[in-house]
Amino acid sequence: MNTGTPPLRLHVPEPSGRPGHATDFSYLHVAPAGAARRPPVDVSPADTADLAFTLVRVLDDDGHAVGPWAPEPDVPLLQRGLRAMLKTRAFDARMLIAQRQKKISFYMQCLGEEAIATAHALAIEPGDMCFPTYRQQGLLLARDDIPMVEMMCQLMSNERDPMRGRQLPVMYSYKRAGFFSISGNLATQFIQAVGWGMASAIKGDTKIASAWIGDGSTAEADFHTALTFAHVYRAPVILNVVNNQWAISTFQAIAGGEATTFAARGVGCGIASLRVDGNDFLAVLAASRWAAERARRNLGPTLIEWITYRAGAHSTADDPSRYRPADDWVHFPLGDPIERLKRHLVGLGAWSDAEHDRTQKALEAEVAAALKQAESYGGTLIDNHVPPIESMFEDVYRDMPAHLREQLNQARAEWQQQRAATPPKEG
Ligand SMILES: Cc1ncc(C[n+]2csc(CCOP(=O)(O)OP(=O)(O)O)c2C)c(N)n1
Ligand SMILES: [Mg+2]
Question: Residue with the nearest Cα to atom 20 of ligand 1?
Answer without folding.
Answer: 247
